[in-house]
Design goal:
Blueprint (H helix, E strand, L loop, with lengths): L7 E2 L2 E2 H16 L5 E4 L6 E3 L4 E4 L4 E4 L5 E5 L4 E5 L16 E2 L7 E12 L2 E9 L3 E3 L18 E6 L8 E7 L3 H13 L9 E11 L7 E10 L4 E8 L11 E5 L6 E2 L19 E7 L1 H5 L5 E6 L2 E6 L13 E5 L2 E7 H6 L17 E3 L2 E7 L8 E4 L3 E9 L14 E9 L1 E4 L11 E4 L7 E8 L19 E8 L7 E11 L10 E5 L2 E2 L7 E4 L5 E7 L11 E10 L28 E4 L1
Antiparallel strand pairs: 1-2, 3-4, 5-6, 7-8, 9-14, 10-11, 11-12, 12-13, 13-18, 14-15, 15-16, 16-17, 17-20, 18-19, 21-22, 23-24, 24-26, 25-26, 27-28, 28-29, 30-39, 31-32, 32-33, 33-38, 34-35, 34-39, 35-36, 37-38, 39-40
């Protein structure tokens, strides 16, 4: 008598053995499910459901994934399940208006786009379609048959490899209306349901049954689609059909941008592109780009990136090595000054141009190329600039930073960068004119300090409206009117003081033969023709004297003056001369060796 638990088949229970046999049969027929796609970054694996066929001795059974129909003939012992058709091809169908490529090995065709395409933060109106499976936004090298992921250029390569140039179909088409537009809208909105995309332009390039250059029995089929709505969104779709195995290093799939790393599709070999996806559509990889970069207008050495959820212009591969914080460049000229900072370095440290300002929070930076420039002008807008002086210099000072910034450089509570324009109080200049009585100018340039100009100009009368111009012959005893002025300073803040003025028969300030006109800010008491008309009350001082010559020398004379700058707010700039109130102590007592000179 058999036990109910003793039904054995070749030493094992009947049902488990049948299951093992069934598994072995399915594996032998290749119908066990295998991974098809891996969604990038999600960790999710999608599986193809198997088509199962098993013979039980009485008939055939075909099963699909539960979505097919199952029929059975009563008493026949046969059960049939109708399989679901395989997924549709991811390719876009191109119409009769497509253009075929007939090019040489490694060659490209220049294509004018019907609408600009935004890519890498730039609007392109043409592209270069290469027979070797890529399109570029720069003139490609026809010898680039071996792909290079280090180009640092704007390029899109669905499958960059060495392809046969005269076998298979290579064609492209672009459209602003019609079936391609409808197809793009349908596919993109299906893959990106939150976008609400409406294409205004589509470009499709297709390689179909194109063999590898050195393996004419290995064929490739792939496609790239560019789509844009002319505004906020652009998309790149890469569609793949049959692909062979290609040796590592001889193929490249993905896209690259100028001064940025190449984005490679993460598969081990080219043939895996046909069965993988980042949008759960086997054989399709899709990439979305927005117009955030378009509005930023990143410079050629910058790249649009998202950092901490904010789009901005980050630094590209080519960056300047500067010891200054944020590549700071300071410019000073009289009452004006500016601080120029690297926009990309500020952005990478989390400082937005909108959040930075000077002492006056209404004074924001102005974008000039890839630099953020903060400027003040004491004549127009001081932007909170303070004016100070010490024993040797006049100092204009301001700050650039965020509202919270208190330290010179602070990563806690904000950013604050102090910058100053520093000018020497004492300045002596020389200006030979050689008969032509106008135009002599010198500039004082100080490393890391400011610069300004002092000029000496002769005028025809005491109105100081009409200067002498060109060749001038002056009679002896003619009354001369001289203006000495410092440019680029606010005349309500800075005063120019004539310390001394003198004449020599040669263009040499320390020549032994000299005649003093002004000494210690006052007229020479031995020359009754000298008058100090204005001194130390603004950026221009005036004096006059009667023309003369040096006995025993030529008729030419050279005029020299030594001056200094003074802060008008101190009240100690202008010195009373003998015959007036007693002398007040001058705010600054310094002298220099050079002079401003003029020849008559």
């Amino acid at each position: 008598m058999k036990s109910k638990d003793s039904v054995l088949f070749m030493g094992c229970s009947l049902l488990p053995c049948l299951a093992v046999l069934l598994f072995m049969s399915l594996e032998a027929k290749g119908s066990i499910a295998h991974p098809l796609t891996a969604e990038e970054g999600s960790g999710e694996i999608a599986y193809m459901q198997p088509i199962i066929t098993a013979e039980d001795g009485s008939g055939e059974t075909t099963a699909e994934d539960g979505s097919g129909e199952t029929t059975a003939e009563e008493g026949s012992g046969e059960t049939t399940v109708t399989p679901t058709p395989p997924p549709a091809s991811p390719f876009f169908d191109v119409g009769p208006g497509s253009i075929s490529l007939y090019l040489g090995d490694g060659a490209y065709e220049t294509i004018q786009l019907e609408q600009p395409f935004m890519y890498g933060g730039k609007a392109y109106t043409q592209l270069y379609l290469n027979v070797d499976g890529y399109l570029a936004f720069f003139v490609p090298n026809i010898n680039d048959e071996v792909p290079n992921s280090q180009l640092g250029q704007d390029i899109i390569s669905p499958l960059w490899t060495d392809l046969n140039f005269n076998v298979g179909e290579k064609k492209y088409e672009q459209a602003t209306s019609g079936p391609l537009i409808d197809k793009a809208n349908q596919e993109i909105n299906r893959m990106f349901p939150d976008v609400d995309f409406s294409a205004s332009w589509v470009f499709v390039a297709t390689w179909e049954n194109v063999p590898l250059e050195y393996y004419n029995t290995e064929f490739t089929s792939f496609q790239v689609v560019l789509a844009s709505d002319g505004g906020l969104f652009s998309f790149i779709l890469m569609n793949y059909g049959t692909l062979p195995y290609i040796s590592p290093g001889y193929w490249l799939a993905g896209y690259g941008m100028e001064y940025s790393n190449f984005v490679t599709i993460p598969v081990n070999n080219a043939y895996e592109l046909s069965s993988s996806s980042n949008v759960n559509i086997p054989g399709r990889w899709a990439f979305q780009f927005t117009a955030h970069c378009r509005n930023l207008n990143c410079a050629s050495d910058e790249v649009c990136r998202q950092i901490n959820g904010v789009y901005g212009c980050a630094c590209g591969y080519i960056t300047t090595q500067s010891p200054n914080i944020y590549d700071a460049i300071e410019t000073c000229s009289g009452s004006t000054g500016s601080l120029s900072l690297s926009r990309c370095k500020l952005f990478e440290d989390g400082y937005s141009a909108d959040n930075l300002h000077m002492n006056d929070q209404n004074c924001k930076g102005e974008l000039q190329d890839n630099r953020l420039v903060f400027s003040f002008d004491s004549d127009v807008n001081t932007c909170g600039t303070t004016l100070k002086n010490n024993d040797t210099h006049v100092i204009f000072s301001n700050n650039v930073g965020t509202t919270e910034g208190l330290a010179v450089i602070s990563r806690v509570g904000g950013l604050n960068i102090n910058f100053s324009c520093v000018y020497p109080l004492i300045q002596s200049i020389s200006m030979p004119t050689d008969i032509e009585a106008i135009g002599g100018v010198i500039s004082k340039y100080l490393s890391t300090e400011g610069s300004y100009q002092i000029t000496m100009i002769p005028y025809t009368d005491d109105t100081f409206q009409v200067p002498f111009i060109g060749n001038v012959t002056l009679d002896v005893n003619h009354q001369m009117y001289i203006a000495v002025q410092v440019d680029q300073f606010d005349s309500t803040q800075i005063g120019l003081v004539l310390d001394s003025c003198w004449a020599t028969p040669f263009n040499q300030t320390d020549y032994s033969v000299r005649w003093d006109l002004i000494s210690n800010e006052c007229p020479n008491p031995n020359d009754g023709t000298v008058a100090v008309l204005q001194n130390g009350v603004s950026t221009t001082s005036y004096f006059s004297f009667r023309m003369f010559t040096f006995t025993g020398f030529s008729n030419k004379i050279y005029l020299h003056c030594q001056v200094h700058l003074c802060l008008l707010e101190t009240g100690n700039c202008a010195q009373p001369c003998p015959g007036y109130l007693s002398r007040r102590r001058r705010a600054v007592d310094f002298y220099d060796s050079a002079a401003i000179s003029m020849e008559f």
